[in-house]
Amino acid sequence: MQYSVMVEYALHSLVYLIDIPEEESIGIKDLSEFQGLSETYLSKVLAKLAKAGIVSSTPGVKGGYRLAKAPEEVSFWDVIEAVEGVKPIFQCKNILKRNMMYVDKGHKLDKENKMDQEAQEESSCACTSGNTTCLINLTMLEAEAHMRDFLRKKTLAWLNKELTHTLPEHVQKGTREYFFKKK
Fold this sequence. Notes:
The chain is about 50% helix and about 5% strand. It is mostly helical. A two-stranded antiparallel sheet has the order 1-2. Strands 3-4 form a two-stranded antiparallel sheet. A hairpin with a 5-residue loop joins strand 1 and strand 2. Helix 1 (about 5-15) crosses helix 3. This is Rrf2 family protein. Keywords: DNA-binding.
């Protein structure tokens, strides 16, 4: 399992938006320059966050981005869903139905033990084949649910608090000065 680097850039960008004054925003140019990214790429990331209602944007020369929700209301999982979408990580192909014991009578296996295309399309996993439960799919879905629950508990507010304790003071101060010295 691997999330795209967009998730990391999204979380980092959101960290910089946490403590800005209510009437302020941070421009895409500053956010992208600070992270060493192209404005175009970071704009795609922020567009996904805006579509999910996590950030809002102000157009114009003095415009930029700001959090649309309180940091306590934005979880890591919210960010992952905004950037990656909502499909499950594990994509069960229901290969149990291709097992010689479960092949539908109307669908024959070819020489390479593959079902025809129609049979494959009909075999999306519903966690059961006949009376047998697909334990692999159930286990993977359960593990995914635990991960989602864990990531839902980790919010931007939690991250900000942790960074306050772990980042050296000069890094925290330098970051704030970078974004607000230009204002």
